[in-house]
Each structure stands twice: as C-alpha cells, then as structure tokens.
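[Q] Does anyone have a clean structure-token version of this?
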Amino acid sequence: MELTFEKDPEIKSLKDDIKTMKRMELALKKSKQLDQTVNMDLAGREFQYIDCNKSFWNPERFSLLYGTWIWNQSSDYQKTILNQLYWVAYYSQIISAEIATIFFNQTCAASLYGIEDFRIVCDTLDLESAQERAHINAFKNVSEELEKTLFGQRIFTYPMRTPFVKTMMYSDLNKVQEWLRTQQLRAYSVLSANSAFIGCQYFTVRGLRTLNGKIVQHQLSKFYSGMENPDLAPIPAKISYYHFIDESFHFNTSTVISHDVVNSLKAPNKWESHIANMTLQGCQKDHFNFSTAINGIFWFDPALYAPVYKILRSDVFGMSHEDALTAIYKSFCEESEGAVASAKTHSEAVDSYKAYLADFKYITKKNKDMQLMSQNNLERHLATNKKYFERFKKSI
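[A] Here you go.
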C-alpha cells in the first residue's frame, strides 16, 4: 500500500530553502573542523599564573582603566596588572552571556525540533553549547587563579550561576528591576521552548551582542596571532584567539537563524512580534551604558566603584582610603582618553546594530533606530558618574 502525505500549507520546511540549508550545513561542517574545544581545555588545564604574571595578555589599550588618571599614574608593574584585569573582567562578562547562550540554545532547539526538517539547526546549537562550556571553564580557571593570587578574594569573578541572573554583570538595575528581569527571563524560557519564532528571536539579540563582541575580540585575538613566536605567548592570549575562532561561527549562526531560518517558519502573530520587540528593547537597556574602565563592555560605571576601590586598596596599588577615592573621581568623573574611546565604541555599536536590524519587517522603528541606546553620550555619562560618586563616597 502506498502512503500519501498531506502537507499543511501553513507549515514550511527548511529543506525548501535550499540556499539557507546549504549555508547551515557548510557552517556546521566548518565549525566542527575548526572546533577549538580541545585547545581551550588544554590551555585551561595548563595555565599557571606565575608563568605569565609579568606579561601583557591584550593590546595595551585593552587594559582596565586605560587612558584614565589611574592608568597614567601607574607604574609599569601596575599597568601590567591592569592589562591582565581587563582580560579577567571582560571574560567574566562573556561567561555570563555564554551561560545564557547554553540555556537558550536548548530552548530554541526544543521548539525547532518539533517542526519537520530543522535538525541541522539543532545539531549546530548542540555543538555551540558544548563549545561554550569549554570557554567558560578556561575563562574561570585563569580569572579565579589571578584574583586568588593577587587579592585573595573575588573582584570580577563569581561562582557558577543560572541564566536567570541578570546578564549584564554591572548594571544600573535596582533590586526590584533585577527581580523583574529574572521573571522576564523565566517567562521567555517557557515561550521560546514553545514557539519556534520566539525561540529564534534569541539569535537576533545574540547576533547584536556578538556583533559588539567582535569589535573587541578580533583585536584581542590579533594580539596572539600577530606575535612573531605565538608558541611563547601567555596562555590567556591563546585562549582569546581560540575563543574568537569559535565565536566567529557562532555569529554566523546567529545571523543565518535570525535573518534566514525564520523565513521558513510561520509568519509571527502580533503577540510573537511583541515579544520579539520586547527582547530587543531589553538589549537596548542592557547596552545603554558604556564603561570608562573597560572599553567594549557596556557596564554601569558607578557599579564598578566598589571593585576598583578594592583594587586600589590592595597591595598592588597600596592607596589610602582618601587617595583611592580621589583616583576614582579623577578616572570616572573627568573626561579622559579612556572615556572618549569607550564612548566611541558605544557609538560604533549603535551604528552596527542598526545595520544588522535594517531588513527585519516585524521590528519597530524604536528598535531599528536604537532610539533608547542612542540617547547616551559622553556628557551624560560623566554627569551620571559624578552623581553616583557622591553616593559611593558617603557609603564607604
């Protein structure tokens, strides 16, 4: 007996989009071929801080507080530590983002696997999640050993946590807003596992976040690849290079899913479009701020006053209470080369986000134009830092 299959005209198949299917297949093949998991795990195991404690791990301008009063007053030894602390702070934020990626990769895959012919996307996300776990492990090994050796306490690192904690480590959210964000993330996890369209919207946001990351991570990877003898490079620089290779494929996945794979799904209804725009509005809020202390990460500077104070009071800098407060004010509240550079990176991110979202039909003008994120500027940034400095000064 011959079987006959009736096809629901509203249900599309990814196999019908030959171009996108081939792109996904090629991307998965190359990602497997260039998978850096083995290198990441080996580097994480072999890292010993004493082996590279006197070396820069990044280009000089990618140092904590680069171009500020603190940087300009620092000794060569202190600048080396600030360069290494940039690596620790930067990848501590990346860990937070990658914890979320591991989880939402799976909720998206759960919704897509319930539809015919989307296995190639699910397989790609499975590989990425395994890679993210290797990244996190390597970042944690390096960062925690440095902080334990130099400070005997955590500065930027933190114990492993769930994806429902705020994604942006140092933000301007108050306790109520943090609670609300947690509930929103929990609700999104349920929605994304049940709606393929909503699940795929994570990759629109992930594409923006990775696009911003590429601005910095390409430079960090070049620090290693541009060396005359890369074999002698400090292990953290190698990890930056391995990470960039993996993340280049992750960005490609985000782009293909958010721009092309969604076209093989049912058109979004009003509710799904609303949820998609809410996630982008949340991304704008997360990326509204920029940090004088760490160019390329959109942290809220006043939230960094306490960890920077700990660094300045440690044996590395040996400052008194008053000297540390003066240094924080001069570095965060006065215009500097570092503040200008961070503002420029923020502006570049706004422009790149607009370009990334230009062709989306369901995205509102407010999100396409990045209207919220675009409101921040250097003058506003410094005024906010000054306002919160007075509160910090009284609280410590």
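[Q] Thanks! Anything notable?
[A] The radius of gyration is 22 Å.
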